[in-house]
Design a protein that fits this description.
The chain has 269 residues and is an alpha+beta fold. The protein contains two helices and 20 strands. It has two domains: 118 residues, no CATH class; 140 residues, no CATH class. Strands 7, 8, 11, 15 and 18 form a five-stranded antiparallel sheet that branches. A three-stranded antiparallel sheet has the order 12-13-14, with no helix packed on it. Strand 7 and strand 8 form a beta hairpin. Helix 1 runs antiparallel to helix 2. The radius of gyration is 27 Å and the shape is elongated.
């Protein structure tokens, strides 16, 4: 009996340690543009069936309940929270998706060029004039948007439908140079996080559905705004305290089981 309690409590401590890591990562990314917090889901392990529920008693009546002893807990998965957060910046290259959808960028992952997806809209213009994500590798927007070198930052207008227009020097008219395409997924929570504010598709997420912003279920694009981290520090700190207390309770269970085993070992002498 004490051995089962030891293993159950140990599995609880291992699982809670994983949760502490996730909560700490959420708090560490509280100022990361486009970051989405994760939560940890748990599930119980297999049960030791000491008596099946429903077996007949001495009067040949089914017993209403059995005796099943659990063997602990494990982390069943981490779930991404895609709720939105935003802030006004006024920068022409800062774009926020209002609603569903992801920006598409080209990057290198595991040595191969892939299309990745992000909610971070902190773009900049690289030396070639292409709009790229302001992350560590400057992932280029896909399809690419190239802004002529003679166009100033103040002469760029991005519409809610993703249409990018610029004003050429000496002209008062706006010229369309491209359209920012968005992607969405049937199951966004099935995307795989690869760091640098990027996700890639998986079998769980399904294939991307691409299209213009503000149409067919896609969100609208707001220029001069950024989607910031959706981490709520108060909620995370409360979660952290609860996890610490649960960790302490499991450690006390181990101590109690150890004391029980000591009593049994003493009886054998």
């Amino acid at each position: 009996m004490g051995v089962t309690a030891l293993h159950s409590a140990a599995s609880g401590m291992r699982s809670l340690d994983e949760k502490l890591n996730v909560v700490a990562n959420n708090l560490a990314n509280i100022n990361t543009v486009g970051f989405k917090r994760s939560r940890v889901n748990f599930e119980d392990l297999v049960y030791q069936v000491k008596r099946e529920p429903g077996i007949p008693n001495l009067d040949d009546e089914p017993i209403p309940h059995g005796i099943l002893v659990g063997t602990g807990v494990k982390v069943s998965g981490t779930q991404i929270d895609f709720s939105q957060g935003s802030v006004d910046t006024g920068r022409p290259y800062d774009l926020q998706i209002e609603g569903q959808g992801f920006f598409q960028v080209r990057t290198v992952h595991d040595g191969q060029e892939v299309v990745a997806y992000t909610r971070a809209g902190n773009f900049v213009r690289n030396p070639e004039g292409n709009m790229v994500l302001a992350n560590s590798d400057g992932a280029i927007l896909d399809p690419p948007i190239n802004i002529p070198s003679e166009v100033g930052d103040g002469d760029i207008v991005v519409g809610r439908n993703g249409e990018v227009r610029v004003r050429q020097p000496g002209s008062s008219a706006l010229t369309t140079i491209g359209n920012i395409q968005l992607a969405r997924f049937v199951n966004s929570e099935g995307l795989k996080q690869i760091g640098r504010n990027l996700f890639i598709e998986t079998d769980a997420s399904g294939a991307p559905i691409t299209g213009e912003a503000n149409q067919d279920g896609m969100g609208a694009i707001n220029q001069g705004q950024l989607e910031m981290s959706n981490v709520d520090p108060v909620r995370e700190l409360i979660d952290l305290i609860q996890t610490q207390r649960a960790f302490e309770l499991n450690s006390q269970s181990i101590q109690t089981a150890d004391e029980s085993l000591q009593v049994v070992s003493t009886l054998r002498r």
